[in-house]
Design brief:
By secondary structure, the chain is mainly α. The chain is built from 14 helices and no strands. The chain has one domain. It is about 75% helix and about 0% strand.
């Protein structure tokens, strides 16, 4: 049974979410073991220590892929932890191909978690958190292409896009497809860098660096393009736009 059917009232969903966050906060405050575990999980990501992150993932043995997926979801929920550090560590642990595939799958899972959390919490709370936007107009005009552009070129936070998309009319399957396709180039670049760190492969280093440079150059060109001048205003909105409702 869908959770929204069990808790049809948005107030009930907000109360449940707030209660969960309070319980986590109390556990962190009152339980030293929980606090130590939280630091052990978050610290390698926060410090960008790929080798410590690699050792942490490997410590789970057969459960290492699941640990990596959990970390990717966690970094989405506890922004601004960097996802690229995990992508590099995945390649160091699992190799270029499997590490890149795991990064893409786990990043997609994290994006969908954020997407559905936004739908769970409802539009009013997310709009207040984001400060108002015109992403409705963006998705109405460009659909999944808007998501693809925002994923492919890092002009705004990926996590913001995931949460914001959740309270618009875009379909989950279209969001998922555009997200996956858009994240592949960056995932490949960071995986190449991770593989080069692990194996000292200069070709992987050169390939990863070249791909990142191309993505950054593409981002610069997009920002300078005439099309972006029409696209950009849809990322910031007057307050009255944020009050409009969309059926989900």
């Amino acid at each position: 049974m869908p959770v929204r059917t069990i808790f049809p009232s948005i107030w009930a969903r907000w109360l449940l979410t707030a209660s969960t966050l309070i319980l986590i906060g109390l556990a962190y405050w009152r339980l030293p073991a929980f606090q130590a575990a939280a630091h052990r999980v978050v610290a390698p990501l926060a410090m960008g220590d790929v080798r410590a992150l690699k050792e942490f993932i490997l410590s789970f043995g057969w459960w290492a892929p699941a640990a990596s997926v959990f970390l990717m979801i966690l970094q989405t929920l506890i922004a601004p932890l960097p996802a690229f550090v995990l992508a590099i560590a995945n390649a160091m642990v699992f190799g270029l191909f499997w590490g890149c595939l795991l990064t893409c799958v786990s990043a997609l899972a994290a994006a969908l978690v954020a997407f559905y959390i936004a739908r769970w919490l409802g539009r009013p709370l997310i709009v207040r958190w984001a400060g108002g936007w015109r992403l409705d107009a963006l998705f109405e005009r460009y659909g999944a292409w808007g998501i693809l552009i925002l994923r492919l070129f890092p002009v705004i936070s990926f996590d913001f896009v995931s949460f914001a998309a959740g309270v618009t009319a875009i379909r989950a399957k279209h969001f998922a497809l555009a997200t996956f396709v858009g994240m592949v180039p960056a995932a490949v670049a960071y995986s190449l860098l991770g593989e080069s760190i692990e194996s000292a492969n200069r070709w992987s280093l050169a390939g990863g660096a070249a791909l990142l440079i191309l993505l950054l150059a593409g981002t610069y060109l997009v920002r300078r393009s005439r099309a972006w001048q029409n696209f950009r205003p849809l990322l910031g909105a007057p307050a009255n736009r944020a009050k409009q409702t969309v059926k989900i």
